[in-house]
Amino acid sequence: MRLLRKQDNQVRVVMTHSAMQFISPLTFQALSGNSVSTELLDAEEENAMGHINLARWADKLVIAPATANIIAKLTHGLADDLLSTLYLATNCPVYIAPAMNHVMWNKAVTQENILRLQTHGVQLIGPESGDQACGEVGFGRMSEASDIVLKLTEESCSDYTLQSKNILISAGPTREFLDPVRYITNRSSGKMGYALAEAALNAGAKVTLISGPVNLTSSDKITRINVETAEQMHHAVLSRADKNDIYIGAAAVADYTPASISLKKIKKQANESTIQLQKTRDILTDVAALKNKPNFIVGFAAETDDLEHYAKNKLKQKKLDMIAANWVGQEQGGFDKDENALQVYWNTGSQCLEMTNKTHLAKQLINLITERVNEKNST
Ligand code: PMT
What is the C-alpha separation between 43 and 160, in angstroms, rounded? Predict the structure, then answer.
């Protein structure tokens, strides 16, 4: 706490009932300058939802010391106290600094839990080997406070990898109108594109988000332009592309739109009816053909079969620097779900980003894009 405060960080403390048997909340209140939260249902909070308020407030969540018990609870999604519920409710990066007896640390179930938490994106700090509180010697000592703070600071620096870059991102579905009350659309929720916008912002970029109609909010540090149709999205992207260093097309843009829009509601008449469709303009292709195009262009590919083949074709045909391909129409990942997995291809390589929540996946993709941008700039 003292080291974090010394670096001008705002810190709020959550204590479990067990933690309070070691230290009084008053100690942390005095050190942090903020009241300490201990209860899941807090009548003092305006909306009685302390966990949601804390989850939205925090840029990082650090659990130190993390016992075998809290590690097991986080792994299995238990939410029976404020800390475990806060973990479920937050989208920010989470760090744990385990501390326990070395036999407990080495127990197969603890090691399995740690591995699973890491695949969920939780970052591990320590533990170290040495003298333990129980009098034994081995792995399980919590890392030194200075090492924990160093890890948090290192991460903050690497978060700022896209500083001074302008990034344009498209997200969500489009609506193609048939008449004043009906439209053709798709199942995109915008979650993937919005997570990318947030990850790019956290990496220090200036972000413009061109959004189809979705039910999501975005940070007020992101410039957001709302559109409905593929044609509007085309215009919104193309008119800004030349001012951006990177374009990421995560939107599910309609490939076809009704050839004409009826000004009046179409009446029910014959048993069968045919809608004439015409191709929309391809935004990615047109961005890549600009004279002053962004330095790095990333497309997405949503596929129900032969993912690698179709994704690589789109990479080539649309003249992209990178394509992030995902399976759609399956039980996990793709449209609307909170999780997704991506197979990312570029001209000289590929990488698989495993199934995880879209927030974490977006951060991984932004890191990958940053690496490729840096490589492109150095050649
Ligand atoms: O929004 P979510 O619910 O979180 O779901 C995320 C997602 C599945 C929508 C997202 O991960 C995704 O795959 N987005 C691209 C969907 C898509 O339209 O894929 P596609 O294979 O049909 O198109 C390939 C690429 O061409 C895409 O980058 C698309 O934005 C782009 N395109 C398509 C048509 C068009 N007229 N202009 C385009 O630029």
Answer: 38
